[in-house]
Amino acid sequence: MAGDGVRNVFDPTEILADIATLQDSVDDLDADVVLLQADVTDILAIADGLPTLTSMVGSTTTTIVDTEYDLYVLAAPLGVYKPILVTVNFLNQTAGETVILRQYRRDTDGGVWSLFDETLPIIGVQSPVLIGISLGPNRYGIRTTIERTGGAARAYPWSAFYEI
């Protein structure tokens, strides 16, 4: 039995061809991922540039009659910004109180506050208890105030909503 040793009849040609095909497919997928990443980067740049709604809250007490008290004030925005709404909660107001809400704007950098809008006197118990002050885009600053013209000192919680 000389010369009849164990022989390997395996031919790797087909497997090597399959491996080459798989490598080509992986290369194609890798190229697609690179293109997809470029699209994701573009989408993130757009999304990062979109305004984000944010808010600020506080409470103002009208201690002295016929005195204006600040609610929401942004005196020096970094650029054009879009304040949207200030809501004032009148839950604490009783039948004896009368207040006026005002909105001021600046027209120049560091300029004086100019009266933009004013409510009629808000007298007594309110329903609904939230009163909104609509705001618009502004470059140089916005200020909202409350003035008690009658009744006792009350705390008025407020919320401001704006885009940054």
TrEMBL record:
Name of the protein: Uncharacterized protein
